[in-house]
Amino acid sequence: MRFSSLGSGSEGNAWLFESSNDQASPTRIMVDCGFTIKGTVARLDRMGLSPEQVNALIVTHEHDDHLGGVFKFSRKFNAPVFLTHGTWRAALRTKRTDAAYLQTGLVNLIESHQAFEVGSLSIQPFPVPHDALEPIQMLVSDGQYHVGILTDCGSSTPHLVRMLGKADALILESNHCPDMLLQSPYPDSLKRRVGGNYGHLSNQTACEILRSLVGGKLRFAVAAHLSKNTNDAKLVRTMWNDILAPAGVRFGVACQENGFDWWNVRDILTADNTAQA
Ligand SMILES: [Zn+2]
Ligand SMILES: [Zn+2]
Fold it and tell me: Which ligand is nearest to the CA of 133?
């Protein structure tokens, strides 16, 4: 299984997962789509994929940087959409879709605790504290490896840490530096929202989660959803390196413009085994 990002941040998000490419027809899913059709197609092209190769869209929640392009993409390329009941209701309110879209058969309503399958990939969603109607994040598995995603989450919970303990690789939000947020020109209400328990993960909370995962299965991590105004990728790299380097866990940072190039989970684990041999 391999995964990549088409872009990550408050201006748009999309993650790609592809089941093992030694299969005749690998399954490819896109988690969230916060870009225009044109932007999404161009970004997919950069990853060597055509839009028709995306088998399904999974939506984490209704915020525009995640939902903005979902239904346009689904309609144009006939791609099924998987989302919770709450996110569907919220999507109707945003007018990004309408109730008639249910008749296309492309809408799949899911439970926030119930695993489901798309082709040869299995998705285990879990609920997260974020200011949306029924937000989820998830583990994606090809039966052999697990990749976890956790962005758009205001605080850590024992349940989500337990879920992420199964992940060989993890995409983890490191949204803001609390000091930079405090000193930013954002209105107080926005500072409270972003920094609150239903907002976004600070660098510190992301590091706490990483600390609780090192020493377990985790071999690779990607820092995601970094704020352009209230964070600094260099700072995140330093903080992550302090925790992950001693444990031999490699990491990267996904950015808004270029996302993150393909990472093959098997290659990551094989490289680790070779290094240990
Ligand atoms: Zn977001
Ligand atoms: Zn959000």
Answer: 2
